[in-house]
Amino acid sequence: MVTHQVYHNTVQLFGMTSHQTNVSSDEKLHNKTQNISITKRLELEQRLQRVRHYCNKLEIDQAVESSHDYRKDNGSYDSSDWYLDETHRIAFCQVQKVSSTNWLTTLISAVEADGTRSSAKDVGFEDLVSPRDKNFKFSYLKRYDLVDFTKTNASGQYLKFFFVRHPFERLLSAYRDKFQAVGGWKRRNFRREYLKYKHPNQPIEPSQIDGLQLSFKGFVQYVLDTPNRYLDCHWQRFVDQCMPCLIRYDFIGKFETLEADAEAFLRQAHLDDKVTFPKREVYYSQQSSAAVLKRYYKKIPIRLAQKLYEKYEIDFLMFDYKFPADLFKY
């Protein structure tokens, strides 16, 4: 286990002590938070403080010596996708199944509103990876680049944010989207990966992929059997995906208060007069109801549920989520 000093050394990647970071962060964001209500500001600050508390208490060390060593040690593994809006100096850690596509659309629209690109139409993810327009100041950053990003103190120049969601609700959302929905080559890839896990060292036939009927209980077991470092980004732990014990975030939003938090962030980023965050459709809210969660999770034995909690426990603690005991059969 690492020492508390390692945590403080990690904070010093930004070129300052932990105490100095608190002060400079407050000063830096002072003007940006004036148009957010006091109640919301306190709520947001408490989230940031809670993350710092658990990074310290659990002695989590996410420092990486260099991007070269990271690539060498981890191969093609990437734990997070980062996007940089260079025009507005915003850094976004994408957490899938937490309205990440809507956030990308919103941020791109903000860049478009400043005339960096002539039109927002036909902007796809391929533009983020390899933009056709070289003047398009919205870049895609893989995790191994993130190491250099922090080492060079560039992160201190950006307003850094991400959004989280109750881990069990996010897990169910990923299952329904990737294993129950029909069609799409990306969904076929998820099914193929599951079949590789289920039948290692055996060829996978197309008919197996198309005919796969995976229960939610089977999916949960699949997640439990997968080492944390190899979890797919759609159900990866937040602490691994966005590395909040390495990166000192300025804003952490929650899916449960999405509209209010989105409005607060856009105000803090001074983008509220340029773009609005898409509102959730009525049908989507209904599909995410407690009744849907209950219908799926009541089929999960409490023994399995407890193991699932243990796997994501750091996310539960760090982002203030509770174990939903009422969802499970006893």
Primary descriptors:
330 residues; alpha/beta; 17 helices; globular; disordered N terminus
Report on this structure:
The protein starts with a helix and ends in a 12-residue tail after the last helix. The chain is 50% helix and 8% strand. α4 (67-74) packs antiparallel against α7 (143-151) and α11 crosses α16. The chain has a five-stranded mixed sheet. The longest helix has 20 residues, at 38-57. With 330 residues, the protein is of the alpha/beta class. A hairpin with a 4-residue loop joins β1 and β2 (90-94).
Mean model confidence by pLDDT: 77
Give the SSE order as H and E letters. Answer: HHHHEEHHEHEHHHHHEHHHHH
**What overall geometry do the principal axes of the alpha carbons give?**
globular
Strand content: 5-15%
Helical residues, percent: 40-55%
Spatial separation of the terminal alpha carbons: 36 Å
| Rg over alpha carbons | 20 Å
Q: Given the helix and strand composition, which structural class is it? A: alpha/beta
Strand order of the largest sheet: 3-1-2-4-5
Low-confidence stretches: 1-30, 65-79, 118-126, 128-132
Count up the helices.
17
> What oligomeric state do these chains adopt?
single chain
Q: Largest sheet, described in full?
A: 5 strands, mixed
By DSSP, the count of extended strands is 5
List the helices and strands and how they pair.
Blueprint: H1 4-11, H2 18-30, H3 38-57, H4 67-74, E1 81-85, E2 90-94, H5 100-113, H6 125-129, E3 138-142, H7 143-151, E4 159-164, H8 167-180, H9 185-198, H10 206-210, H11 216-225, H12 238-241, E5 251-254, H13 258-268, H14 282-287, H15 290-297, H16 302-311, H17 313-318
Parallel strand pairs: 2-4, 4-5
Antiparallel strand pairs: 1-2, 1-3
